[in-house]
Design a protein that fits this description.
2 domains; 4 helices; two-stranded parallel ribbon; flat; alpha+beta; 177 residues; three-stranded antiparallel beta sheet
């Protein structure tokens, strides 16, 4: 049975200024963050509202506000060049999330390869053992690489890998009011 639905989507972009006090030199600086968020509203045709787009936009706006509140970009202090610990942690967390996604997706191609590689006349128990070893090893390898990448990322020591130094901005001295 087919049930039609109406999906209305909206995308919003916003920016905010972040005020930071450097943990090394103690001076204030600021930087800008830009974030994008999408929202949607799903309804069944008899109940399609003329305000569906407004609702989708409202959801997108709420997501954008949350995103801007927690936004942390990697920005060096304009006075001393130091990267704040919370900015480095946020970037490392991003690395871990990407690695977790890769680790979750890694077993599927291995599963397909191992099905093709194991001869058909082998017992099922031997196949399960081989498959468990192959998939477990691949996931463990991805996890180890992720941890190494995260710990190799030390911007205050000049180690930006896997990012580039050109991806990093310098903040602007805060305006005294």
């Amino acid at each position: 049975m087919h049930i039609p639905v109406h999906i209305e989507t909206a995308e919003v972009v916003g920016h905010a200024r972040k005020q930071v006090r450097c943990e090394k030199c103690g001076k204030d600086f600021e930087y800008g963050v830009i974030r994008r968020a999408a929202g949607d509203h799903v309804s069944v045709p008899p109940f399609v509202s003329s305000r569906a787009h407004e609702r989708a936009e409202h959801v997108a706006q709420q997501k954008l506000e949350r995103s801007l509140n927690v936004a942390e970009d990697l920005v060096a202090c304009p006075h001393c060049g130091w990267f704040q610990a919370r900015m480095v942690r946020a970037k490392r967390l991003w690395l871990f999330k990407i690695a977790a996604l890769i680790a979750a997706l890694t077993p599927w191609p291995l599963l397909m390869l191992s099905i093709k590689m194991v001869p058909r006349n082998r017992p099922a128990d031997e196949f399960k053992m081989y498959l468990g070893t192959a998939v477990g090893s691949a996931v463990a390898l991805v996890a180890v690489v992720a941890v190494l990448l995260a710990f190799m990322f030390r911007p205050n020591a000049g180690a930006f890998f896997p990012f580039s130094k050109k991806d990093v901005n310098r903040g602007k001295p805060a305006k005294v009011s």
